[in-house]
Every structure is written in C-alpha cells, then in structure tokens.
Write a structure and sequence with these properties.
The complex is a heterodimer of chains A (115) and B (116). By secondary structure, chain A is mainly β. Chain A contains no helices and ten strands. In chain B, strands 2, 5, 6, 10, 11 and 12 form a six-stranded mixed β-sheet that branches.
C-alpha cells in the first residue's frame, strides 16, 4: 500500500497480558516513529528508529515497553504485563530519512484497551 | 519542563468565521514547527511546516501560520472556515537537538467544530 499501515486496528486485552502492535512503514522510508495518544493528551513520543543506528528509546515509559524493527522495515511494539494506564491509541509514523524538516506520515493507529 | 502548549481545547465556530489557534513552545534555539490535522476517521496528516525563511507559511486548504520567535509562538490561522475544517489540530515542535533529531513534541490538540 501507499501509506503507513498498522495492525490490529483495535485490541482489547486483560491486565497482565502481553500485546504486540505492528507497523508497516512506507516503502523506502528509513525512519520510523512510535507515539502514544492517551485520552485528553497530546501525542507522546515513544521510540524512533533511523536506518541501522541504535534506536532512540528515551520516550519509552517503562521497561515493560520494547520495540524492534526487522530488516529496516516492519516494526513491532511490545507491551508486557499490560496495565490499565497503557490504554491509548498507539500511532506509528515514518519519514524518508529521519531529517528534522521532513514530514512524518502517520498510520491509522492501534486502539488498545486494557481491562 | 519544556513543552508545547495549545491553549484552546475546543473551538466552536460558524462557517465563514475567522480562525486562530494558539501554539506556544518553550524550547530554546532553532526549532522546526509543524501543524498536523486529523479529520474524523482519517490519519493524522501535515497541514503546514516552518523551518526557515519567511515566518508566514501557507499550507493546504487555505491555512497559514506565523512564527514569532520572540513570543515562541506558531499560531494557525484561516480567514474563513468551512464545515469541512471540523477536525483536531495538533501543533508540534522539533527542537533540533542532536540526540532528538526527527523526534516531534506535540501539543494536546485543539478540537475545531464548524457549524454549517
């Protein structure tokens, strides 16, 4: 497809379970970002991948959160032992080279609800 | 703490009214500035951006924004809104620090509702 895709669209899980969220960036984009949007909050940066460089993980809220990017393309965000405060929309974005002036192209998001 | 502030949480206008949405940031030094918009049921998309040159930038659908460095502001404007402008608007800043290159800091968003 032409845009950033994310799956699943919606995820309902029980507290304490692990979840995996997937992001497929625009083909050829070397930079990939994960953000989180909680109810009434702005978008909160989580993690940033740029090519083969070490990812910027400074936005991950706890060690229950991790992400990887395989083959410089698809990324998976994993949340272990989910808590109710993890409920949010998780957005993925990509950009061509990760340069500061570039537009970031966002996916539709995954809406996570932790019961 | 450094931040991006959008002062209006929800703005309600009638069609043809003028719009100004405020955005202030607290990062020093050189910044890149963005406004993103999310129409109902759609992805977040870029409305306009500023990184250098003329501080008045024009974006899609008749929107413009003015960067005022002395006020740390990047307010969004449109002279005459339409019903189709109903959406949520997000201001974002890239503070251009080496370790955070590419990373955006977002405001909380402003929901704009335009009545026909």
């Amino acid at each position: 497809g032409a845009g950033v895709s994310q799956s699943p669209s919606n995820k309902v899980t029980e507290k304490g379970k692990d979840v995996e969220l997937r992001c497929d960036p625009i083909s050829g984009h070397t930079a990939l970002y994960w953000y989180r949007q909680s109810l009434g909050q702005g978008l909160e940066f989580l993690i940033y991948f740029q090519g083969n460089s070490a990812p910027d993980k400074s936005g991950l809220p706890s060690d229950r959160f991790s992400a990887e990017r395989t083959g410089g393309s698809v990324s998976t965000l994993t949340i272990q032992r989910t808590q109710q405060e993890d409920s949010a929309v998780y957005l993925c974005a990509s950009s061509p080279q990760g340069l500061a002036r570039e537009t970031q192209y966002f996916g539709p998001g995954t809406r996570l609800l932790v019961l | 703490a450094q931040s991006v502030s959008q002062h209006n949480h929800h703005v309600i206008l009638s069609e043809a009214a003028s719009l100004e949405l405020g955005c202030n940031y607290s990062y020093g030094g050189t910044v890149n500035l963005f406004w993103y918009v999310q129409y109902p049921g759609q992805h977040l998309q870029l409305l306009l951006k500023y990184f250098s040159g003329d501080p008045l930038v024009k974006g899609i659908k008749g929107f413009e924004a003015e960067f005022i460095k002395s006020k740390f502001s990047f307010n969004l404007r449109k002279p005459s809104v339409q019903w189709s402008d109903t959406a949520e608007y997000f201001c974002a800043v890239n503070p251009l620090r080496g370790s955070t290159l590419g990373r955006l800091y977002f405001g909380r968003g402003t929901q704009l509702t335009v009545w026909p």
